[in-house]
């Protein structure tokens, strides 16, 4: 298996200029291995999907020990680099967030997502700086994808969102972030402007209104992730199959997609 240092090098290279990394997010070991078997060059977890499959709401309600165990399970079954959705770092302060990320580095994680949410962007900048400093002190590193929730959480008036997104992107870049995540941005012109103004690989989030990957690539996007949407699709298929069996006494929905499922036993032997 590659070392954590080797995985970071591979992960960084996947964000190089001219490339676009596609990340269909996973939520457990089976979905992570499925993503790898489908041909993904890296695996990213979704905090929401990981929380749901353990019976918790999204938003750092999932106990930290479960987060770490879920990460171990994913890392055990894949060979490609893994980026862990770390919400706000599971801490209200920079030191706590850095300690959380250092634990992920020790497990073998190549990257993280860390978000500002409704907190001050200056706090996220402090978390990024503290994490990079803590990693450097240990002779380690990790790819930090800084998420700005300006559009996702409607933090400022519409006419101020683009400028605020660019301001936060530059703030996180200067703090040491390696990538910039702009969820809920779907207008190509605005995406292109952010990609040009913030000198970091730009990450878009899959939504119904998001343009196709080819158009995003042309606009300067270098990473597209699915977030919780693939887990929702999986649970939606399970709900349809379950309701058909319960309500109609039929099995068509079960077998409509079950044949696409990998044979996990040989993969995990």
Order of helices and strands: HEHEHHEHEHEHEHEHEHHH
- Tally of strands: 8
**Biggest sheet statistics:** 8 strands, parallel
Which percent band covers the strand fraction? Answer: 5-15%
Arithmetic mean of pLDDT: 97
Distance between the termini: 16 Å
Principal-axes geometry comes out as: globular
What is the C-alpha radius of gyration, as a whole number of Å? 19 Å
Task: Tell me the number of helical segments per DSSP (H or I, 4 or more residues long).
Answer: 12
Ranges where pLDDT stays below 50 over 5 or more residues in a row are: none
Helix fraction, binned, reads: 40-55%
Kindly report the spatial arrangement of strands forming the biggest sheet: 1-8-7-6-5-4-3-2
The helix-and-strand class reads alpha/beta
Task: Compile the SSE list and pairings.
Blueprint: H1 4-13, E1 21-23, H2 29-37, E2 43-44, H3 47-53, H4 64-77, E3 82-85, H5 94-107, E4 111-115, H6 121-137, E5 143-147, H7 158-175, E6 179-181, H8 188-197, E7 202-205, H9 213-218, E8 221-225, H10 229-248, H11 252-257, H12 264-268
Helix pairs in contact: 2-4, 5-6, 6-7, 7-8
Give an overview of the whole structure:
The chain has 269 residues and is α/β, with parallel strands linked by helices. The protein is built from twelve helices and eight strands. The protein has an eight-stranded parallel beta sheet with strand order 1-8-7-6-5-4-3-2. Helix 2 (29-37) runs parallel beside helix 4, helix 6 packs parallel to helix 7 (158-175) and helix 7 runs parallel beside helix 8. It starts with a helix and ends with a helix.
């Amino acid at each position: 298996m590659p070392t954590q240092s080797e995985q970071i090098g591979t992960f960084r290279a996947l964000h190089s200029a001219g490339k676009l990394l596609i990340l269909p997010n996973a939520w457990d070991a089976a979905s992570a291995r499925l993503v790898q078997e489908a041909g993904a060059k890296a695996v990213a977890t979704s905090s929401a999907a990981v929380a749901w499959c353990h019976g918790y709401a999204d938003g750092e309600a999932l106990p930290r020990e479960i987060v770490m165990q879920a990460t171990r399970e994913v890392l055990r079954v894949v060979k490609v680099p893994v980026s862990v959705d770390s919400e706000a770092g599971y801490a209200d302060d920079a030191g706590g967030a850095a300690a959380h990320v250092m634990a992920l580095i020790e497990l073998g994680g190549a990257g993280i997502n860390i978000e500002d949410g409704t907190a001050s962007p200056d706090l996220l900048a402090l978390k990024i700086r503290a994490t990079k400093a803590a990693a450097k002190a240990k002779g380690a590193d990790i790819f930090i994808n800084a998420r700005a929730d300006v559009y996702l959480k409607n933090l400022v008036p519409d006419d101020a969102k683009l400028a605020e997104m660019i301001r936060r992107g530059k703030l996180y870049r200067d703090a040491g972030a390696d990538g910039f995540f702009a969820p809920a941005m779907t207008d190509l012109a605005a995406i292109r402007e952010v990609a040009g103004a913030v000198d970091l690989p730009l990450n878009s989030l899959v939504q119904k209104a998001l343009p196709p990957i080819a158009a995003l690539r042309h606009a300067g996007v270098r990473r597209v992730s699915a977030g919780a949407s693939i887990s929702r699709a999986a649970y939606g298929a399970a709900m349809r199959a379950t309701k058909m069996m319960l309500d109609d006494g039929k099995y068509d929905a079960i077998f409509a997609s079950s044949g696409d499922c990998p044979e996990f036993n040989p993969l995990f032997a």
